[in-house]
Amino acid sequence: MTKAKFSPFDVADHIKTAEDAVHYLDAVLLDGDANEIAEALGVVARSQGMSTIAKESGLSRETLYRTLSDAGNPRLATLIGVLRAMGLRLSVTVA
Q1: How far apart are the C-alpha atoms of 64 and 70, rounded to whole Å?
Q2: Residue 47: inside a domain
């Protein structure tokens, strides 16, 4: 019997377009958990290149990793800056 080889699953590897990022973030936002939202933004940032997003948002890579972790709590200004660097924007719809 051959042993199966498994690789760690990373959502960031599957986010290829802005539309992919939007669908992923929309799904996470449905739950409304702040820690999961911060972590999901980190996933999208990794998919686009953390260094690029850090530079575009005016944050250091280390700050960006820390802020967009499951323990992070980004300020609204940081959130908007990161989304802008990702080519996305914040919007609101009726629940």
Answers
A1: 12
A2: yes
Q: Which of 31-35, 63-67, 87-91 is the least confident region?
A: 31-35
Residue 6 inside a domain? The answer is no
CA distances from 35 to 1, 31, 49, 56 (A): 42, 11, 21, 23
**15-39 pLDDT tens trace:** 999 999 999 999 999 987 888 999 9
Domain extent, residue 38, equals 17-85
Domain count, the chain: 1
Residue pair 44/15 in contact by the 8 Å Cβ criterion: yes
**AA letter at 13:** D
Is 0.90 topped by the overall pTM?
no
